[in-house]
Amino acid sequence: MSKKELKVSRIKNGTVIDHIPAGRAMEVLRILKITGKEGFMVLIAMNVYSKKLKGKKDIIKIEGKFLSDKETAAISLVAPTATINIIKDGEVKEKKGVKAPTLVEGILKCPNPVCVSRIERENISSKFIKVSENPLTYKCVYCGTRIEESDIPKYLNM
Ligand code: CTP
Ligand code: ZN
Q1: Which of 76, 78, 122, 143 has the smallest number of CB atoms closer than 10 Å to its CB?
Q2: What number is the average pLDDT over the span 136-154?
Q3: Which of 11, 92, 98 to mutate to test the pocket of ligand 1 (most atoms within 8 A of CB)?
Q4: From the CA of 24, how far away is ligand 1's center (Å)?
Q5: Which atom of ligand 1 is nearest to the CA of 92?
Q6: Is residue 112 over pLDDT 60?
Q7: What sections of the chain are H helices per DSSP?
Q8: Is the peptide bond before 135 cis (omega within 30 degrees of 0)?
């Protein structure tokens, strides 16, 4: 291990979300509704050096928690480079990259206040299409309003 790498304790059973873009760990914690008051062990490292990303990254390790599909989809929107590791008995049992979905239904709120998806009595859930991978950009199917990667946390409905 190089001197630049920071060692964060290993966990026994739970989830390690690795390769989060530097500075986005708080957004991931917000999606998972982790405040620290739940009682399970959470290890967070921010702005640590990553060889893979050739720069800084954030890491979150959560003992005793496994992610739902909806949580994983939302994480892929704020941390498209993340790797999700499922740890069982201290071993990495499963490792998967996240991928921002082509179609996102219901998780993002359209920024346009008069979009049909925002009119309550219409009861239409939001629908966004991915129009760019890097930077990640989505476009509302109903009104064409775009959401840029840096604005995604602001419009997440979790
Ligand atoms: N990890 C952990 N507790 C364990 C096992 C692994 O916290 N009991 C963490 C490691 O510290 C690492 C991540 O889970 O941050 C993935 O582990 P591993 O696949 O062993 O590391 P790398 O090979 O570095 O992963 P990658 O190739 O995805 O960078
Ligand atoms: Zn819209």
Answers
A1: 122
A2: 97
A3: 92
A4: 19
A5: 5
A6: yes
A7: 25-31, 69-78, 152-155
A8: yes
